[in-house]
Amino acid sequence: MSFDFDAAVTAPFRMQPGLRRLAPGTPQLTPLAPGSRHQREKLAVLSAFPELALQVRPGFDPAPALQALAAHAAAEQSQAFAWDGRTARALRLGTAVQGTEVLHESAGAFGLGDEIARCLRPLPAEWRLAGLLALAFAEDLAIVDARDASVPWMAVCLPSHWAPQDKIGRGFADVHAPVADAERVRRAAPHLVGLVAGPERWERFVWNVTGHPRLHAHPRHVDPVRWPADIGSTLPAGAWWRTERQTFVPVPDAQQAVFTIAVDVQPLAEAIRTPAQAQALHDAMASMSDAVLDYRALGPVREPLLQWLRTIG
């Protein structure tokens, strides 16, 4: 995962858009190997409770954006994905979606070899292309619509402590309403959505320290008690570094963009390796407001985390 620590972890900490232009040719998608961690967790979600991940506003047509994403995937990651305008092929997974038909073309290298096809076939026909894209790449997907600054469609299997069904169809500013100290983001929402739906490509980064080790962090499936009572005496064990790299694939003809979210989770002690990183994270956390600490569930652990970070040198 191409998370840029130096760009993302700064002090004083501020909730802000943090957009930066992507250099031409910079990849936006991360192909998954059969049986990889991301793929296993996504398979579990799409097989057991797809309704938690797959959400669409009634009447919204995602086809133009999905076709643009499939074409982008085939151009950027040709060794992993192919698209001819009707048939999408996940080349590493031996599975294709032709129109709405799922084709199992060759045995995969994971499990019985047909896991991807068996996961996709029970999905509603209109979700099968999105499901294939979700299982072929690490990124979760959403569509932002510049015409009303809304998020009318999502295929988000690995949310970071939020529920897609609570966000679908809402305005971009409204989606960020629960985010602490994010008034700057909310005020800029119409401009930001217009920007990312334009001809240029953008990325941004998000991070947190969490007690939850899995990629899938839907609030229905995580312990509401975010930290054990004795976490201060066990750190850094039990603390995890959760990051997101977010990018936007523009669909200018539709005044839309596909929003990609690449989540990664590592043990905190493995992610923070150098004194410079420890100092940067220390200073960012030390500068967080009480509202941000509460929103990120860091209040109970900030002081022991700061103490641990001071020992890295």
Characterization of this structure:
This protein is α+β, with helices and mostly antiparallel strands and 313 residues long. It has one domain (5-21, 29-221, 233-308). The protein is built from 14 helices and eleven strands. The protein has helices at 5-8, 37-48, 63-76, 115-120, 128-136, 164-167, 172-175, 183-187, 189-196, 231-234, 268-271, 275-286, 290-295, 302-310, and strands at residues 20-21, 54-56, 81-83, 87-90, 95-98, 101-104, 140-145, 150-155, 202-210, 240-251, 256-267. Strands 1-9-10-11-7-8-2 form a seven-stranded antiparallel beta sheet. α2 (37-48) runs antiparallel to α5. The longest helix has 14 residues, at 63-76. The chain is globular. The model has no long low-confidence stretch (mean pLDDT 92).
What would you say about this model in short?
With 313 residues, the chain is of the alpha+beta class. The protein has 14 helices and 11 strands.
